[in-house]
Amino acid sequence: MSKTINRRAMFAEIHQDTREGGQLHVFSLAYVKKDGTLGEKGRCCKSTKRCPGERGYRGNVNNNHVLLLTNLETGKPFEVLIDLITHYNRMRVNHNS
């Protein structure tokens, strides 16, 4: 049986930009893409970029339900819909608690 993590605990961890010793908080995600296919990022972190959009990224996850992250393997930012995240650090995400 795989471990689970609730949505709130996942957010608490993602929003920690750095770990002890000043190391970047790196994690893995599995998710369902908008087209219904499965996606996975092995090494990503919370993005510090102010994109997309001319006026910068409005990172209020309560309103737009989107996380802006950086894929550390490519160095490129990407967006993921919060409700479509299935696994965080190989733990199943429980969106109902």
What report would you give on this structure?
With 97 residues, the chain is mainly beta. It is built from two helices and seven strands. The model has no long low-confidence stretch (mean pLDDT 84).
In a nutshell, what does this entry contain?
The chain is 12% helix and 39% strand. By secondary structure, the chain is mainly β.
What is the total number of structural domains?
1
List the total number of helices.
2
> Helix and strand string, N-terminal first?
EHEEHEEEE
Structural class: mainly beta
Give the SSE map.
Blueprint (H helix, E strand, L loop, with lengths): L3 E3 H8 L12 E6 L5 E9 L14 H4 L1 E6 L4 E6 L3 E4 L2 E4 L3
Parallel strand pairs: 1-7
Antiparallel strand pairs: 2-3, 2-6, 3-4, 4-5, 6-7
List the main descriptive attributes of the protein structure presented here:
SH3 type barrels; globular; 97 residues; mainly beta; 2 helices
